[in-house]
Specification:
Layout: H1 2-21, H2 30-52, H3 59-75, H4 82-102
Helix pairs in contact: 1-3, 1-4, 2-3, 3-4
Amino acid sequence: MLLGAILSMVDILGGILLIVSAFVPFGESGFIITMGAVFLTKGVLLLVYSKFGKEHIDWGSLLDLVTGALLVLSFYSIYNFIFPVIGIFMIAKGVIKLVTSLV
């Protein structure tokens, strides 16, 4: 229960970073590339778990992969109009998971 709440707060942080990265260039911040690596790893692990765990691929793991890739791109100062949209979806995913993990 606590791990789910912590991971959902990380999702919310990732969404906020994506929204802010569209307007404020982070340049070569080590925090952005680290968060991108965390989200890429989380997305790959969830996809592998869903493949071998006989479960369906959920939209959350794909959203983690996309968020990680976009954060890595923002590290290299590559921005697009889709960053805030994906950030809003990531925040919504984090809030939904936070509410469901605390109930």
